[in-house]
From TrEMBL:
Keywords: ATP-binding, Kinase, Nucleotide-binding, Phosphoprotein, Transferase. It comes from the Bacteria. Residues 123-240 form the Response regulatory domain. Residues 284-356 form the PAS domain. SUPFAM superfamilies: ATPase domain of HSP90 chaperone/DNA topoisomerase II/histidine kinase, CheY-like, Homodimeric domain of signal transducing histidine kinase, PYP-like sensor domain (PAS domain). The modification 4-aspartylphosphate is found at residue 172. Pfam families: HATPase_c, HisKA, PAS_3, Response_reg. The keyword Kinase applies. PANTHER family: OSMOSENSING HISTIDINE PROTEIN KINASE SLN1, TWO-COMPONENT HISTIDINE PROTEIN KINASE. This is histidine kinase. Residues 422-640 form the Histidine kinase domain.
Length: 648
């Protein structure tokens, strides 16, 4: 049975080349292609398909092939491919070389896996005096299943190499005694080990002097050792593929001692540079933390490679949540999005990551108390050298309060427009009647037939009533304008409220007769208090007018209760009543209990009542049953207001 065939489909790049070398190091055959079109060609059928998630893929076409498939994709690409029907083993992108090897090994057909049994074909010798560095490199090599042997110094590594004859040697350049340079030179002098590839490593990046020294001793390369280990693994795979160079000619003009001395001097300079860079980084980080902490906006940072999401304390505070309760994942955050917004937000995120469309969306986020806050989320993706998104960061603004103010402003504008329309109608009605009366009088005066004085007197009386109505409307508008900015001015004196009520009822008899209402007054005891009689008369007349307006043809009952410290006035009608949901806002400016098209008025009467009563230190309330009428209760302390806005 032949070795497994792996088809690697990815964009041409050094990364794809290294992935191919990693797969070939396991004894597998590898073919590299730029697209999945290779599957339709009549060649040898691969055992495993390795795909780069960013390529255009057809899920149905892949499903019909029935191939074991490994896809390297970010979390967003993974969801997109699953929706298109791609059935595969997914690896987070970018995946390490070891993860790619393990991913392919996991999906190999059973018959092909048997070929992988047996002794490791490749022996790797690691020479490093730092046990942590040795262990870390061993972990990086674990997925490849090489035979790894280690030595704590150069001399032990040389002896071990002579016994085991490794395929490749990885040596640290700064080992005590026999350092990496001398070890490489010793290996090149041994005819049996002269062509064994040797890779020199160090935590710092090599400069021109390092590379020249490595070339002089016959090393295959000088590689910077990182925690991820990808640079060392890449150099190792390339060295295995080249099967080692011939021994390099030695340049005796540069001694190892001179090189090491120069390296120490460079390390001292690098330590100073690193200290300054670290100090600058700390200062930059501190400035960043101050900006984030002082911002009213919430900040988020999403690492697509590791699928971790960081939220600033301010963002969590906006949502009423604690830092320790947030698991730091994209899925946990997207769960806070309102279900109706989730599809739209995720579509905007995918469009930004795949097509670069600006990410600026409105979204409702769930607060810890269960309510939803209106927010605006903006973000920008950061991409690698291939243009693929690796990170995305942005801000979230809570606009709940701004949205509330905007809606209140819209409602205020609507109310204003409605009020102006009603006010124009209310003012135009008496003006029209006044004009008609005056035109009638004028016509009568110019007529040849003499007009009786009684007829002229009636016309002028009607005109006078319209003028009084206009005066009342104008006074109401002026009064409300003043009441909006400050409490009404009061002329306080010792007053009998019963006398004020009886006089107000008497003045309303004519209006009541026109409305077909009968004003019913209960016996009223003398009720003395420190009040403004003019303002209280306005209160009584407003309540009576309101009762007659909404209960025409029905009686209106007026009662006065004298208590020890307060007087309670009640005005009850038997009209249409008030809906329960309108009771709380009934005494506000421009508020109405009924539609304006059915009942006239400016919607200011009860507002004036409330402001006058509150200026006296009292309160006004209402009880109502829809269809059975309403009862208004006015409570006034006998001592008057504690602090009054009085007229002098």
């Amino acid at each position: 049975m032949s070795q497994p065939l792996v088809l690697l489909v990815a964009t041409p790049s050094p990364g794809r080349t290294l992935q191919a070398l990693a797969l070939e190091s396991q004894g597998w055959r590898v073919q590299q292609e730029d697209s999945v079109a290779r599957l339709a060609e009549p060649r040898e059928r691969p055992d495993v398909l390795v795909l780069e998630g960013g390529l255009p893929l057809n899920g149905e076409a892949l499903a019909t092939q029935g191939l074991a498939t490994v896809v390297l994709a970010s979390s967003v690409e993974r969801e997109r491919l699953k929706q298109r029907g791609v059935q595969a083993s997914f690896l987070d992108w970018p995946a390490s070389l070891g993860e790619v090897v393990e991913g392919v090994r996991a999906v190999l057909p059973p018959g092909k896996k048997e070929l992988q049994e047996g002794p490791p074909p490749i022996t790797v010798l690691i020479a490093d005096d730092d046990p942590l560095s040795r262990k870390l490199l061993q972990l990086h090599l674990t997925p490849f299943r090489f035979e790894v042997v280690t030595a704590p110094n150069g001399q032990a590594a040389l002896e071990l190499a002579r016994r085991r004859r490794p395929k490749v040697v990885i040596a640290d350049v700064l080992m005590p005694g026999l350092d990496g340079f001398r070890l490489c030179l010793a290996l090149r002098k041994d005819p049996r080990l002269a062509n064994v590839p040797v890779l020199l490593t160090h935590v710092g990046a090599p400069d021109e002097l390092d590379l020249r020294m490595a070339q002089n001793v016959g090393a295959n390369g000088f590689v910077r050792r990182t925690q991820e280990g990808e640079e060392v693994l890449g150099a190792l795979l390339r060295a295995l593929h080249s099967e080692g160079p011939a021994a390099a000619p030695l340049d005796q003009g540069l001694l190892c001692e001179e090189h090491l001395h120069g390296m120490v001097r460079r390390l001292e300079r690098q330590v100073g540079l690193l200290a300054r860079a670290e100090r600058s980084a700390r200062e930059s980080e501190e400035r960043y933390r101050l900006v984030v902490a002082g911002s009213y906006d919430g900040v988020w940072d999403w690492d697509l490679r590791h699928d971790t999401l960081w939220c600033s304390p301010r963002l969590l505070e906006l949502l009423g949540r604690r830092t320790e309760d947030f698991p730091g994942t994209y899925d946990a955050f997207i769960a806070w999005v309102h279900p109706e917004d989730r599809t739209r937000v995720e579509a905007a995120m995918v469009a930004h990551l795949e097509e670069g469309t600006p990410y600026d969306v409105s979204v409702r986020l769930r607060h810890a108390d269960g309510s939803y806050h209106a927010c605006v989320s903006r973000g920008q993706a950061m991409r690698d050298e291939h243009g693929r998104p690796v990170r995305m960061a942005g801000i979230i603004n809570d606009v709940t309060e701004q949205l509330r103010l905007f809606r209140e402003t819209q409602e205020a504008v609507r109310t204003r427009d409605e009020f102006l329309s009603v006010a124009a109608h209310e003012l135009r009605t008496p003006l029209t009647a006044l004009r008609l009366r005056l035109q009638g009088v004028n016509a009568a005066m110019q007529a040849d037939t003499p007009t009786s004085p009684e007829r002229i007197s009636q016309a002028l009386g009607s005109a006078d009533r319209q003028v009084q109505r206009l005066t009342g409307l104008v006074d109401t508008l002026l009064d409300v304008s003043q009441l909006q900015s400050h409490a009404p001015l009061l002329q306080l004196e010792q007053v009998d409220l019963a006398a004020v009520v009886r006089e107000a009822v008497a003045r309303s008899e004519l209006e009541a007769s026109r409305a077909g209402c009968r004003l019913v007054m209960s016996p009223m005891p003398s009720t003395l208090g420190r009040w403004d009689p003019v303002r209280l008369a306005q209160v009584v007349r407003h309540l009576l007018a309101n009762a007659m307006k909404f209960g025409p043809g029905k009686p209106v009952e007026v009662t006065l209760e004298a208590r020890v410290d307060a007087a309670v006035l009640k005005v009850r009608d038997h009209g249409i009543g008030i809906e329960p949901e309108r009771l709380d806002t009934l005494f506000q400016r421009f508020e109405r209990a009924v539609p304006v098209r059915h009942y006239g008025g400016l919607g200011l009467g009860l507002y004036r009542v409330r402001r006058i009563v509150e200026a006296h230190g009292g309160a006004v309330t209402v009880d109502s049953v829809l269809g059975e009428g309403a009862t208004f209760h006015v409570s006034l302390p006998r001592e008057g207001p504690a602090v009054a806005n009085t007229r002098i």
